[in-house]
């Protein structure tokens, strides 16, 4: 009833949030969209053809985003891979957003990992089934604090890389993205009504590979930030 508090069957879960660097503010997460094969070299290493494929997206759960600096190795898999990505956090949304206005929706950016149970994803692909078991598991999206676009602008170039135990595994440049941030936002808005709080993981460069318990993952994106995660 209007004016009364809802009588929940059990207390609702906390709203997933990401910290905003240099402030006491938090960014409340609504949805998490991930673009697949958005760097040409990674598309090739995963068996795709970047010259022929339109963009495609899958989702992670909002509470898959974590900032605890640890990645608990998940159950039911023996082949978990790292994928370093730039996170794009939206402050606005809508439907059918024009490319030339898409960046107006962006609040800021972060450094994230799209951790993947590759063996379960491969099995799902073979059976033509959805990817959630491979992608949307607990703590599968470690993320840095967000940095506001008002502070750094909208990065369109700059190194993106990941080291595992001090060894370089992934390296690329934001200018190698097949679909740019504005194009991803515009395309997605033709499929979904985008909302403030949505986060887009914008794809990974080549060099994805397996992790094991005890590994230290250190990633960075020029002008955006750094991320350090221990596999436990």
From TrEMBL:
<dbReference type="InterPro" id="IPR036663">
    <property type="entry name" value="Fumarylacetoacetase_C_sf"/>
</dbReference>
<dbReference type="InterPro" id="IPR011234">
    <property type="entry name" value="Fumarylacetoacetase-like_C"/>
</dbReference>
<dbReference type="Pfam" id="PF01557">
    <property type="entry name" value="FAA_hydrolase"/>
</dbReference>
<protein>
    <submittedName>
        <fullName>Fumarylacetoacetate hydrolase family protein</fullName>
    </submittedName>
</protein>
<keyword id="KW-0479">Metal-binding</keyword>
<dbReference type="GO" id="GO:0018773">
    <property type="term" value="F:acetylpyruvate hydrolase activity"/>
</dbReference>
<feature type="domain" description="Fumarylacetoacetase-like C-terminal">
    <location>
        <begin position="32"/>
        <end position="231"/>
    </location>
</feature>
<keyword id="KW-0378">Hydrolase</keyword>
<dbReference type="GO" id="GO:0046872">
    <property type="term" value="F:metal ion binding"/>
</dbReference>
């Amino acid at each position: 009833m209007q004016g009364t508090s809802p009588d929940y069957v059990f207390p609702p879960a906390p709203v997933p949030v990401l910290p905003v660097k240099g402030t006491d503010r938090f960014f409340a997460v609504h949805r998490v969209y991930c673009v697949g094969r958005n760097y040409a070299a990674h598309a090739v290493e995963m068996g795709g053809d970047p010259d022929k494929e339109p963009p495609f997206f899958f989702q992670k759960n909002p509470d898959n985003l974590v900032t605890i600096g640890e990645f608990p190795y998940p159950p039911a898999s023996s082949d978990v891979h790292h994928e370093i990505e730039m996170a794009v956090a939206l402050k606005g949304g809508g439907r059918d957003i024009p490319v030339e206005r898409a960046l107006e929706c962006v609040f800021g950016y972060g450094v994230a990992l799209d951790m993947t149970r590759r063996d379960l994803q491969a099995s799902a692909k073979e059976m033509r089934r959805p990817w959630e078991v491979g992608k949307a598991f607990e703590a599968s999206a470690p993320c840095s604090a967000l940095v506001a676009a008002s502070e750094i602008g909208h990065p369109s170039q700059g190194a993106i890389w990941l080291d595992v135990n001090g060894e370089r595994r992934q390296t690329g440049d934001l200018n190698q993205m097949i679909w740019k941030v504005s194009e991803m936002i515009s395309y997605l808005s033709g499929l979904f009504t985008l909302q403030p709080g949505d986060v887009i993981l914008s794809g990974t460069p080549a060099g994805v590979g397996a992790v094991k318990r005890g590994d230290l993952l250190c990633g960075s994106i020029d002008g955006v930030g750094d991320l350090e995660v221990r596999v436990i």
